[in-house]
């Protein structure tokens, strides 16, 4: 009996030892960020799958994105112009974030801070454009409980999913600015600059999610 118990404990220790070996060298903050992003992936996946289900089963025709999201320029409607600019803005921010991570690992603090701030700027611009988009749609009659273009569920799905993503972008902007400030103050001078990569993981995830929202809401 004692030998069986000892063998069981040895197996547990071996399993734990293999886990430690597998994750050896992975910073704690980086591992936790991956776990957070995995959980967030499940949430966004549930939202988008629910959106597809509601859209497919809607009794009324779904609103045409080209009509709902068009802007008027020089007296003519331009479909999805604002959304295209918002998407380009986020793609650009991914580029500046990648440069920030690159310079962070090179220990070039000034350039890392510069590109982190540039990423935060693009994120703030995106949130501002999204606020303008919401204001425009609400003024034209798009509400969570109905709209004049078709299925009344459209407004609820749109505001919930884009609002949840916008909240992530807003939190990301604050996160970026805090990291930039701490870099400026020299908090990470005596340690590695992996914090820049960690915030970069978050930001690239937010950008990737927008690609799916863009495809599902504005192109489908």
Structure description:
Strands 1-2 form a two-stranded antiparallel ribbon. With 220 residues, it is mainly alpha-helical. It is built from seven helices and two strands. It starts with a helix and ends with a helix. Helix 4 (81-105) packs antiparallel against helix 7 and helix 5 packs antiparallel against helix 6. It has helices at residues 2-22, 28-57, 65-68, 81-105, 109-139, 153-184, 194-219, and strands at residues 70-73, 76-79. Helix content is 77%, strand content 4%. It has a single domain, classed as Four Helix Bundle (Hemerythrin (Met), subunit A). The protein is elongated, with a radius of gyration of 23 Å.
Q: Low-confidence spans: pLDDT under 50, at least 5 residues?
A: 15-22
Note the overall shape: elongated
**What count of helical segments does DSSP give?**
7
Name of the CATH first level: Mainly Alpha
What is the CATH superfamily label? Cytochrome c oxidase, subunit III, four-helix bundle
Give the key terms.
220 residues, mainly alpha, Four Helix Bundle (Hemerythrin (Met), subunit A), two-stranded antiparallel ribbon
What's the short version?
The protein has 220 residues and is mainly α.
Q: What is the element layout, followed by pairings?
A:
Elements: H1 2-22, H2 28-57, H3 65-68, E1 70-73, E2 76-79, H4 81-105, H5 109-139, H6 153-184, H7 194-219
Antiparallel strand pairs: 1-2
Helix pairs in contact: 2-6, 2-7, 4-5, 4-7, 5-6, 6-7
């Amino acid at each position: 009996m004692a030998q069986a118990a000892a063998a069981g404990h040895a197996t547990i220790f071996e399993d734990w030892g293999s886990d430690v070996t597998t994750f050896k060298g992975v910073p704690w903050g980086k591992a936790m960020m991956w776990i957070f992003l995995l959980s967030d992936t499940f949430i966004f996946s549930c939202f988008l799958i629910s959106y597809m289900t509601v859209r497919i089963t809607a009794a009324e025709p779904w609103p045409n994105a080209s009509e709902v999201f068009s802007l008027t320029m020089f007296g003519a409607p331009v479909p999805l112009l604002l959304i295209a600019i918002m998407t380009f803005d986020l793609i650009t921010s991914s580029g500046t974030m990648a440069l920030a991570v690159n310079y962070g690992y090179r220990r070039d603090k000034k350039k890392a801070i510069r590109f982190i701030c540039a990423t935060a700027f693009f994120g703030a611009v995106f949130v501002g454009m999204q606020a303008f988009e919401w204001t425009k749609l609400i003024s034209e009659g798009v509400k969570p409980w109905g709209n004049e273009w078709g299925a009344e569920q459209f407004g609820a799905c749109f505001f919930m999913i884009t609002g949840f993503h916008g909240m992530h972008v807003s939190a990301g902007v604050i996160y970026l600015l805090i990291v930039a400030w701490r870099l400026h103050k020299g908090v990470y001078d005596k340690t590695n600059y992996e914090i820049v990569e960690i915030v970069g993981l978050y930001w690239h995830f937010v950008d990737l999610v927008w690609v799916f929202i863009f495809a599902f809401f504005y192109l489908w």
